[in-house]
Amino acid sequence: MHRYIPSTSAEQQELLKSIGANSIEDLFVDIPSNLRFKGDLNIGEGLSELELTKHIQELANKNESGLTCFMGAGAYDHFSPSVINHIALRQEFFTAYTPYQPEISQGTVTAIFEFQTMMSRLTGMEVTNASMYDGQTATAEAVALACENTKRSKIVVSAGLGKDTIEVIKTADETKGIEIIVAPLKDGATDIEATKALMGDDVAGLVVKSPNFFGIVEDLGALEAVAHSDKKSMFIVNTDPSSLGILKAPGEFGADVVVGEAQTLGIPMSFGGPYLGFLSVNKKLVRKIPGRVVGQSTDAEGNRAFVLTLQAREQHIRRYKATSNICSNQGLIMLMATIYMSLMGEQGLKEVATQSMQKAHYAYEKLVATGKFKPMFPGKPFFKEFALVADADVKKINEELLKSGILGGYELGKDYAEYGNGVLIAVTEKRTKEEIDELVRIMEAI
Amino acid sequence: MNKRYNKVIFEVSSEGRKGYSLPKLDVEEKSLSELMPSDLLREGNVGLPEVSEFDVVRHYTNLSKLNYGVDEGFYPLGSCTMKYNPKVNEDMCRLEGFTTLHPLQPESTVQGALELMYDLDMKLSEIAGFARTTLQPAAGAHGEFTGLMVIKAYHKKNGEAEQRTKIIVPDSAHGTNPSTAYVAGFEIAEVKSNDDGSVNVDSLKEVIAENPGAIAGLMLTNPSTLGLFEKSICEITNLVHNAGGLCYYDGANMNAIMGKVRPGDMGFDVMHYNLHKTMSTPHGGGGPGSGPVGVREDLVEFLPTPVVEKKGDEFILDYDRPNSIGRLKGFHGHFGVLVRAYAYVLANGSDGLKQVSEMAVLNANYMMKQLKEKYKLPIDQVCKHEFVLGGIKDTSTGITTLDVAKRLLDFGYHPPTVYFPLIVNEAMMIEPTETESKETMDEFIAILNKIADEAISNPEILKSAPQNTPVGRIDEGKAAKDLVLTYQG
Question: Domains of chain A, with CATH numbers?
């Protein structure tokens, strides 16, 4: 028997006997014989643990990992304290099911309640759900929510969301009959005048991202006025929670929905997943939001206890009337982000944001000073990511950086013909002055 | 589980405490006002906790002890496949060669990661009998959505998307099936189940006849949500195909049939796996899951971008797929979950996976036989990996399935799935999985039988259960009425 299965052959026989079956095959007689799979699956024989770890370690070794990372574009190399993994690996958290039995899931539901609280405070909103798959799908869900809530089928999204997020919105929402209108950028930020012209009494809302895909902090005050120029239309802001230690919360600008990617809260890059989406709203929308929500209550003895609530919104109750089909979310990643926010706390989150921003600006100035890179969007405020136009070929520059174990910026020309030979560089608190100077030295030399 | 710990992190907080350390800023510091217009800067505090590192460790350790995980005991949750999550998988997904990879690194620098994805695609495709499997979907429901989008794209290519608006869903289906069909922009045509949970073929014929040319497809779980193999499976898939629809297989119950029968060979065109069920990746208290979607050869062109392809000895991310349904989520799926599933598939191999399904089915049949004396068994025939009871037989004292479930908590068990499927009254859905021993099952059976006796001799103890858990029965009505969703203290 395989090592993950406890039954011995003797026990198997015992079980069969008590059922009154002669063989295992008797238990599969209900499968028509012409359908039965004959022979062995062509996936190889089972490996011992030693063979298994050797094989997977070899695959891991084929990657160039642990690079000095100056790439962002939606995934960031932030510091992740050791404590997170130790707690997340406690079996009580990671082998537990969705907390449908609250009496034996108070650990999970309490952590969700803490997450809901921290994210709501960061975003300046009243309510946050227990998580979405990632920032892109959370944005797509927010679009569906806005259309459902306003009974309108058009949405205006800023090009500043970046191509991938817009594509996910289109894949998820066009099938619901929603028309997605992309508002153009001007100097890297959402073009206010052009966006105004796209709004109207048939538009459900405006979606912007700040800091946007190009790292620029948008003028949320002005954009809010555009979004709300029609009374019913909604203002949806996608944001990076790690910026909110120093940047004003979208809720303070009057956002109706705040979404985003919380991978920046201590979650490893891990080749793109699993990450952590979030969705925050004000109380008046709580019955419209997708996903799980935990509420406070009391138990039979009157003690405080937490429980999943408002489940009537969800797929397992509403079935074909649910606004979203999300069921499994990102429970364990949510827990990791909650632990991160606890560890970093009030001061830590501020410091991460401050250091990222200071170091990004240092790198920006050093690179511009070489004379070989021009700011793509001069004078625009940015947080930890910025776009430059290079004299030399960006692809060549990145190949050269790689030789020194440095992962250079994102090559904008790949996805944005209009920004050909542009590079988008991200700098987090993890990067040292020495690493930045080395980056500048190599980039200048080409 | 320990005595009742009842704090939230904010109640551990003390102003000025720190739980983090960062190197000193080593670049010249500029004033914030130089970097950012003041109206974009936050004024005042966020309201995050201020705690020491040890405060955090102790708080979350204490919280964890209020939980119940698979490692400590039996978790017979029907439809959820709460099997053992092998420890080595956790080591594998945490290898530095994976965790530090940026998803947009040049393909030449992530050959190992791409090879792993390609190989997992090949193996999942072989296990289910399909041509290719996309690894992008984030969860089972996300996989369902992906699959229905593929079906939509197929009809669109044939110029029939406008007319084919209906997805057939049995009334015994998981809630995600109808809701996925709805959010994917389809209408639902419900087909009746027989008493044994199988599809009523006459009802299916009727639904098809009522919707000429309008059937886009059928979503089916097989074995059904009652844990029974669909006896008319080929007739069903043929009927749908003849009506011009495609057949979608909900792989929630894949644990019953690996190496025994393949969805692709039963006439299915598209399916999703739940890696957090069948392939043993941990449930994590509600995620992350992963819901890869397998398709037959002529549907591969519709899979979401990017697709990992092999060109000679190189692995590439192929974005140039004009007929693709597009991108479903950021980047390449839940890579860390994929590594765990890959480790599991390799550790088992063809021989191991077959044993998995054989033992899962044997265990379920054994438990069903042992429990039918004191519990109603609506359908008494060979089951697959799970079975559904209809509550206790003797209901003279008014004891419900909910009471039984809450009483099980007192004995240190996670209860089965209750009140699902909807077609069975007082349903209790039990799935032991292959990783449980005879002793574990026997103990659980003894406890369930004891509870059935208590229901008659001492019904009060069931109605007031649980007593031995960190908290008693929670007032769910109050939570929904008062709506306290964030910490107000």
Answer: 68-77+347-445 (3.90.1150.10), 82-340 (3.40.640.10)
